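so my prof wants the structure for this chain in the tokens format not the other one, which i didnt know existed until like an hour ago. anyway here's the sequence
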Amino acid sequence: MIENFFSANKNLKLNIIVIGDIAIDDYHHGKISRISPEFPVAILNSQNKQGCQFPGMAANVCHQMKHFNVSPYLLGLVDTSTKSILNEYQFNIDYCVPLINGKNPLKTRFYDNNHPLLRWDIEQSNYGEIDKDLEFLRESLLSNLYEITENNNIHIVVLSDYNKGLFDLKFAQKIINFCNIKNIPTIVDPKKPPLIKWENCTYFKPNSIELNDLTFDGSTKKQIKKISTDLNCKGVVVTQEGLGFTGTLNDCFFDYKPDNVLPSEQVNSTIGAGDAFLSMLAVCLGHNIDFIDSCKLAFAAGSKYVQKKHNSPISIFDLSSSKIIDNIDFLKTRDYKLVFTNGCFDFGLTLAHVECLNFAKQQGDKLLVAINQDESVSRLKGKDRPIMSFLERAKIVSALECVDFVIGFNEDTPQKLIKDLLPSIIVKGGDYKKEDIIGNDLAEVRLFDYVNVDSTTEKIIKFKTKLLL
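here's what i got, hopefully its the right format
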């Protein structure tokens, strides 16, 4: 399943349209150390008033496609401030429509370190627009939808509703009917009734709370059956937070429970988890992956998403249980500081290796270790090397907690790999000189103070000597 997705993602670039309510998530962190003497409330101290702002709602759905082979088109209503923030994140918002007098919702969250204290929502009904203007804005978005589909091969359209005023019955049905005529599948992530608004969509993705708001018809299975029948849709999937999902495909019921439920201590934040699920579901279905398999991959994406901070986009690596990768394409569009180091790592790890790798991880956010393939080791060290195969060496290195990615290379040096990857920092042991390190012209080089222990080659010589005694 995952291999099929990796292959599809590598070989085909998807065009996906996301239509929906757009907001900005604003995070503020400080520390509480005392209670106010004027009134018994906690005082949150911070060094400045500037928060960290991230795309929210439908914009977060687009944001989650960042590390995949996708050209996402975001269609929504934006004010000047929101447009500026989305531009910073390099969104394609050419087809968004400027609000006339209204504002996008702003969700401001205050934290004591990582503990949430308060959420402050600044928003107006229907974005603060009068009905006449809102109708004009909807028609403008429809015109943009028609233009995109005329000039591009669109693989799927996502409707992300947060009940902020964008979707009324007429607008939603115009989108769905148009997509059906064009044979473009649609995925709906609903918020509130009426259910009829989403009639004839292809796929429908409520969560368990939204399911109960949409229908009160007995058991979950009966509720899903009723929705599937009333909407005349192909598939329904109901997410149940971290407990799995349930649904129906062509009137065949399915239920999925993960083997291991994610412990609460590993959950950093559930904000936008549904967006991550929806985004991954759209990407998988765009690649024609089976609906239930798509849901499983989307669940895996959501499980990884909640372990991150502040709407951080998921990646292909997040979907794989192995740290050993065979290409770096998904690392080229990263939004974090990547550290690079390399070596043969033959005959296991030395103390110097372990301490150097721990040092390397401390220099950035993610650490990639490039390991010489077997033929490369033989050319560099002699025909009796390597002692251990590449896969053995890669598995040993990847077992270290500080290592995020491991990749092999068969050249004598990692020059080509570094040039393709352009890491933020290269780390090597202190027995090297910066000017002699491969890639010093492409990234900052930092040296680890060499630990006075035997190298792998020296260990092998001593080992062979003892065998001969």
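also thought this was worth mentioning. Residues 369 and 406 are 5 Å apart (CA to CA).
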